[in-house]
Design goal:
Blueprint: H1 2-13, E1 15-20, E2 29-31, H2 36-48, E3 56-58, E4 63-69, H3 74-79, E5 83-88, E6 93-100, E7 103-106, E8 110-112, E9 117-125, E10 133-141, E11 150-151, E12 164-171, E13 177-186, E14 192-198, E15 201-204
Parallel strand pairs: 2-3, 8-15
Antiparallel strand pairs: 1-4, 4-5, 5-14, 6-7, 6-9, 9-12, 10-11, 10-13, 13-14, 13-15
Length: about 210
């Protein structure tokens, strides 16, 4: 138990969350908007018109955060797609992984598998606002414009949760799919403090040609 706890602590401290101030990455999907609701609609419409797992970067009130692992430099993490955008108070931290059969990927990655189910793992916290709670929404689509992105969050994550790590199974469409996570931070009274959208993770079928 102590060995496992030590391993978990080392993994946690090996991840850094670095806010980027550089211009948007080439080919990235820019999240902007004068309100969170406008940004949400624009993001999902833009995602539905793109293939693969485009990297999200922020503009205007949205800030880009790179999830940096180990000795990696933030620019490399951003280029690999491990980014999320956030807006509001505090410094919400989000790390997402997806596993399907024996394959897995972090935010911005691609998983090739024939599995029909995938496990999404979300680790969320805000070190500046330790008592905040989080509403987690998993958004999925088939990445081929056959259906619009939609909420695939299981019922047991329907309510705000404290900081921690949460897991949920999602169905993978026959042609593959993409999954991104929307996090809304709230106070204990339910007042909204911040929003975050993670870059999607794509699940691709090895027998289908990529777009």
């Amino acid at each position: 138990m102590l060995v496992l706890a030590g391993c978990e602590e080392r993994r946690a401290t090996a991840v850094r969350f670095v806010e980027l101030t550089t211009p948007p990455l080439r080919g990235a999907l820019v999240v902007d908007g004068s309100s969170r609701s406008i940004a949400r609609v624009a993001l999902l419409e833009a995602l539905d018109a793109r293939s693969g797992a485009p990297t999200l970067v922020g503009a205007g009130p949205w800030r880009t955060v790179a999830v940096v692992r180990g000795a990696e430099v933030p620019a490399d993490a951003a280029r690999s797609g491990r980014t999320y955008v956030r807006w509001g108070r505090g410094a919400v931290r989000v790390e997402v992984k997806l596993a399907a059969a024996t394959r897995g990927a972090f935010t911005g990655g691609v998983v090739e598998t024939s599995a029909t189910r995938a496990l999404v793992q979300i680790r969320v916290e805000d070190p500046e606002r330790p008592t905040d709670r989080f509403r987690l929404e998993i958004v999925g689509d088939d990445g081929r414009r056959r259906r619009p992105p939609g909420d695939v969050t299981p019922r047991y994550l329907a309510h705000a949760v404290p900081r921690g790590t949460y897991r949920a199974f999602v169905d993978v469409p026959d042609a593959g799919g993409r999954y991104l996570v929307h996090v809304v931070s709230t106070t204990e009274r339910g007042d909204r403090t911040s929003d975050a959208w993670t870059s999607p993770i794509a699940v691709e079928r090895p027998w289908l040609a990529r777009d």
